[in-house]
Amino acid sequence: MNEPLCRRAFAGWIWAASAAALLSGCGESAPPVETDAGVGPTSCAAAGGRICEPLQSCGPGWITAPDTDRCCPEPCEAAGPTPIFVSIVSHNEDDVRYDRAYGSADQLVGMRDAILEIADLTAAEGASYDFQTDWRFLEALRTYETDADRAMTNGKTLLRYLAEDRGVSIEPHSHECATASPAALAAHPEYAGGCNYADVAALIESFGVTPEPVVGGFLVRPLEQASWERFWDPLPAMVHAGYLWQPALLWGGGSPMHTDDPLLTGVWRPAGHADFERDDPSRALPVIGGGAGCVADLAQAIEAGIAPAGKIYTVSLMVFELEIHQNPATLSSLRDRLVAMRPYVASGAVIYASLPEVRRRWVEAYGSEPHLYDLAAAGTCSAP
After folding, report:
1. For a designed S-S bond to 9, which of 32, 75, 208, 246 qualifies (C-beta 3.0 to 4.6 A apart)?
2. Inter-residue contact 304 to 287 (CB < 8 Å)
3. At what angle do helices 135-144 and 105-124 cross, to 10 degrees?
4. Nearest Cα to 40, choosing from 71, 61, 85, 15?
5. Domains of the chain by range and CATH?
6. Model confidence band, residue 79 (pLDDT cutoffs 50, 70, 90)
């Protein structure tokens, strides 16, 4: 196994019991827990503890750990509102709607500017930003981005600027060429035979950026179209020969055209296609529920005791760069939503976090305890 092609997928991630299973797919063994002889464990996790959030307390009292002063030997206790972790996620696609946007350097500048506007807005509000991109935008960026464009982003290509200078999480999103327009395939015939998530990850890496190991969208319904179990193992690219990509996190489980998406919040390890909503601790691939954008409704349900306190809750707010490029009012709508959340952020009821950060906090602060809350079944949120 080529080390950069597989192990690199785990860069920056916090290891838990799932590490052994993840690395086994790369033909490697998980690294042993390190301790200093005669000194003690080298981390809170190695000490058997959990790192508590600032608004959480520790009943038995904090234990000593070199990496934090908030290490608790038991589950952290809520000392304030049970927070909802909110992620801002953007997508671009490869279908016919994007033919004009990716057809010239002038049009690409508009898409590039839209992405930078999202980055500016989220930063101004103290929010995270997950940029999930499909292959076609990356190929257009490679074709049309100029030195003049890069001069506007500290001399760096857009992806490097977002990752290195703005702290944006760069993640693959893919319809695996199933929706690619004839114009897209005519311009890039190498994709005519199909593509997959590993190809998008390879393209991201070609810009000098390590893609976060997040599957940015997949089908759960109908059952016969679900195919996400393949992400349990390293995925070989179809176009970029020799490239392997090992995902470590699922996000965005839905349905074709989003007509029957499950309205779920939380983090758990789905057991399989037929048991997506059942946690299986033996599985190494957790999923983050999208929460259908229902921040206010969910916060009220938690405060009223309808949704159990002390569990992990997740909500993602979606935005599409093409819509911002074509209609600036779309950005104003996102701004209004973020402004409306300021009271929740101030009270601790909302914590902005990228998807990889949500996973890290789930491991550290919640001890990888699974939690799945069905918003539709509970009547908390009937629609996005």
Report:
1. 246
2. no
3. 110
4. 71
5. 35-78 (no CATH), 82-374 (3.20.20)
6. low
Question: Which of 165, 200, 270 minimizes the C-alpha distance to 9?
Answer: 200
Count of helices and strands (H, E) across the chain: 13, 19
Question: Tokens 């994709």 identify what position?
Answer: 191
Give the count of beta carbons closer than 10 Å to the beta carbon of residue 256. 12
pLDDT in tens, 303-314: 999 999 999 999
- Provide the residue type at 76 as one letter: C
28 φ/ψ sector (left φ>0, alpha ψ -120 to 50, else beta)? beta
pLDDT for res 26: 46
Cα dihedral 20→26→27→30 (10° resolution): -20
Residue 167 DSSP SS3: coil
Q: State the virtual CA torsion across 266, 267, 271, 273 in degrees, nearest 10.
A: 60
Residue 73: cis peptide before it, omega within 30 degrees of 0: no
Quickly state the pLDDT bin for 56 (edges 50, 70, 90). Answer: confident
Q: Tell me how far apart the alpha carbons of residues 105 and 236 are, in angstroms, rounded to a whole number.
A: 31
C-beta pairs of 302-305 under 8 Å, 24+ apart in sequence: 302/81, 302/82, 302/84, 302/349, 303/81, 303/349
